[in-house]
Design a protein that fits this description.
Layout lengths: L2 H19 L4 H8 L3 H9 L8 H11 L3 H9 L4 H5 L1 H7 L3 H17 L2
Length: about 120
Amino acid sequence: MDSKVIMKSRLAGFVKERRRALGLSQRGLAKKAHISHSVVNKIEAGDLNLKPRTDTLESLADALGVPLSRVMDEYQGTRSKEVNADPLLALIEDLTPKQRKLLLSIAKLLIEEEL
């Protein structure tokens, strides 16, 4: 399989999975990211002719609640091996902002209890 196809399918799968985890439709994600529905649709379809601008990927990352670096890594097919090496970091990276806030509260409680 062509590396370009793999990169696009990684981004497509990542965006679709995060969007669904957030309970958003494609139109809902497009509205939240201030980009067109057709761009979201093309990204999720793995359209090989689409070359999204960095500001589009940044808006998408913000709407998905992930760092731009994560979206860029998925787009370029270069996800950091360090993140993959630590399952806790990988799990945290995939949490929604609401879930991250809850996890932070739990972590603070654990530190206070000195478990």
